[in-house]
Amino acid sequence: MVDRRVRPLKQRPLRPGEPGGEEQLAPEHMMHPRPAEPYWADTDGPVDSGIYVEGVRRRSPASLTDTYRELAAMGDGAMAWIGLDRPSQAQLWSLAERFGLHELAIEDAIVAHQRPKLERYGNNLFVVLRTARYLDRTEEVDFGEVHAFIGENFVLTVRHGESPDLASVRRELEAEPELLALGPQAVLYAILDAAVDGYAPVIAGLQNAIDEIETEVFDGEPAVSRRIYELSREVIEFHRAARPLIPMLAEVSAEFVKRGIDEEIHRYLRDIHDHATIVVERVDGFRQNLQNILTVNAALVGQAQNEEMRRLSEAGYAQNEQVKRISGWAAILFAPTLVGTIYGMNFRHMPELHWLLGYPFALALMAIVCGVLYAVFKHRDWL
After folding, report:
1. Which DSSP string corresponds to 59-86?
2. Considering the entire predicted model, what is its pTM?
3. Taking Cα atoms as reference points, which of 94, 241, 248, 202 lies closest to residue 158?
4. CB distance 231 to 290 below 8 Å
5. Is 9 exposed, middle or buried (0-12, 13-18, 19+ CB in 10 A)?
6. Tens digits of per-residue pLDDT, 2-39?
7. Longest CA pairwise span in the chain (Å)
8. Which of 170, 240, 300, 328 would suit a FRET pair with 224, their CA atoms being 20 to 30 Å apart?
């Protein structure tokens, strides 16, 4: 009968001469320590679990405990592929106990938010991938993570996020038993391929958004600067997810060479490496393109502001010319008004009131003053 309880992992054996010989537990300062009390491994069932022999699925266990038992019963030629979606700590520590997974890798799988990387712990490989999908409505890149533990007779995948659809990856690989028969490395290839293929729609979505932004920039859309900034942020984050794939794939290939993995897998890995290189080059191009667009937009905004200032200056100059003309004519017309007003006063004792030449003198005075003012304003280009 299989013991369903899972005991905490032991630390390394004590060296000769070190005090104490009892079992040592994990340090209390660990971010996610293993439970001190016994617990059941099957608190939550796995997303999918299968036992494969020669590339063909022979069993579909309903729990982790059943998976352990049936894998042991089917002998050395069997391989277990266990898929978990946002698993509990109990599940991960159970798997660590059964397959000898390193506690640091388990910590990474629990915490998530890791950078893409490949780490080797003894005969096991731990692979972290950043997956991505493009949300066209919000122009955002939604990132997820896939953690894969690769051993001699097992594959454990832990998914954090909505992509990729590992169930479809499993179905496609099960449809090619010759490839699946190559072992856990074939499963790792399929997961890598799905993650890199998932970048293609993101590249297409970003390219479409950049094309739209270029049109808006030259159309003078006022809100385009914010859109450029937000898209630049998404491109930078996508670059952080995709860039580490290049050295990581090289490490995977070197690890497969060291282990004498089938040459067919190497060909597939080279194809993934080519696709990942294209993705990274495109993302680098997007970053440069957005930087150029931002520069051009700033120049166009500055040019538009200068043009507006020029129009305002021209309008102010024209308005000033009109004011000068109005002021000039107002001054010219003010002179006869002043003379007429003075001589229009009905005082009994005015010197020129009974003068015979008073009227012609008043008219002549009006004409002379108006003429002088007109000449002065005309000389100064006010009229």
Report:
1. E--SSHHHHHHHHHHT-TTEEEEEEEES
2. 0.68
3. 94
4. yes
5. middle
6. 343 333 333 333 333 444 443 333 343 344 454 443 33
7. 145
8. 240
